[in-house]
Amino acid sequence: MPTTPPRYDVLVVGAGITGIYQLYRAREAGFGAYLVESGEGVGGTWFWNRYPGARFDSESYTYGYLFSKELFDEWEWREHFAEQPDIERYLNHVVDRFKLRDDIRCGAEVTAASYDDAVGSWQVTVNDSETIHARFLVSATGVLSVPFVPDVPGRDEFAGQQVHTARWPATPVDFAGKRVAIIGTGSSGVQLVPIVAEQAAALTVYQRTANWCTPLNNAPITADEQQRLRCDFDTIVETLNTSPSGFLHPLHDRAAFDDSAEDRQRFYERMWQVPGFGKLISHYTDLTFNVEANAEWCEFVARKIRSIVRDPDTAARLIPRDHRFGEKRPPFVTGYFEAFNRPNVRLVDLLESPIVRLTSTGIETADGVAELDLVIWATGFDFGTGALSRMDIRGRDGLALNDHWSDGPRTYLGVQTAGFPNFFFPGGPHAAAGNNPRYNGDQVDFVTDLLVYARDQGYGVVEIDPGAEATWTNMIDRAARKAPSFGECSYYFGTNIPGKPRKYLLNSAGRPKLLSMIAEIKANDFAPFQFARVADHGFAAR
Ligand code: N01
Which of 4, 92, 119, 138 shows the smallest number of beta carbons within 10 Å? Predict the structure, then answer.
């Protein structure tokens, strides 16, 4: 007997940090809400990226949820920068604590979604076979969710094991006694290198471009610090809400050449010791604007690299030559440069000897074949639009999202795009440029408030005006040109994916601006969103 497809007010896609919060907010607001997740567990990015060494590089307590003081008080992060298993435990704890698990279905991948204008709702296909109807579809599919593997000849011929950092298997990968390759030296590769180096018989690191890596400076959170965090909750929230990028790191008040040469060196030493993104945020105010200031800091970091790495040729290769500090998203490391002092670790500079192909036994470069048991691809993601572009999303009159975005994403507030009524994507393109969960949480709050407004006014359809979309998207593109960080060499422009349009994928206008725009929109009855009534308002409350 054919069964009637389930119907929900709000269908959330993706059980990452954003999706879990969206499910919580939609349910608290009284919507019949449900969440589908392609992975076999919750956590999103923090479920898939379970490679050894994966951890936050934003402070744990600024990255977790802040909507519940009780949650904040009862969860004790063990480290300032938590490791992946702790993060996954935390997200499972949140799901259970707020009784969300019954409304989440894992192993359910959205393979298509189309808007039905006649009834003002979405027909969503799951796992190519099942149908779910939803009045509102919220894709919380994230920006770092689709792994990228370069099209290197012979990939299928390699007889050993291959794994991507962003699809790391749940069963531990054994490095002991193995000849391992890590391809890619972005944030994932450089976190993994020291761990593999300790266990593998031989590790070859294939680097195309060196990155400006600086120490993460992680530490356990002491009992006193735990206590202080609890006491400071309100101040922490206030600081995060008013800082441009959603971090606690204070801004500096001096430009580099306000200080003497001696004072600058002392300051650089201090920066080397500060945790995580402090090195970008609390640095001299002109670090990313002033070429000379940036060059001096880069030279300081280069000296540090030379002082750690004993082989001068390897050290030289590990020092970036093609970009300044902050032009790409900087990785933060623990023991990365030190790993190259081990006798079992070798660096291959792909600019000198590019990969020719994979053979059945290893990787062939211009210098010959390295025999391998395991190849690890740490080659990044189809950032920002990767997941949305793979779901065959069709809006009004069958318009494909991929056609609407053929020149790159066009959005309003990074939450909706014109021609796709009742479809939202918090935490997607044009969402954050800083501490992701903070911006993404703002967007979830906004989407929920918008849906509550629509419901209260008796509307069933919510759609952004194309003019407003164009204005916001132009603002994003202008802000990107003015932004001090993240040049076109960074994957934030889609540069790493062959054939992808070069369009800025973040929102570098800052969180305070986003929050003030949201306040203004709400004060104006959510103009410039357009609303319409629908005949059938009978969507399911579970
Ligand atoms: O990916 P990436 P990632 N041949 O794109 C190389 C977040 N994150 O997974 O620079 C050889 O940064 C590529 O080389 P190049 C964080 O936002 C956070 O490391 O293009 N190499 C590069 O070295 C981060 O920024 C944490 O020349 C090839 C690497 O692969 C984002 O995720 C931890 C190649 C890709 O680096 C992505 O990081 C981990 C080819 N054909 C990740 N193609 C935290 O700490 C690409 N590469 C929170």
Answer: 4
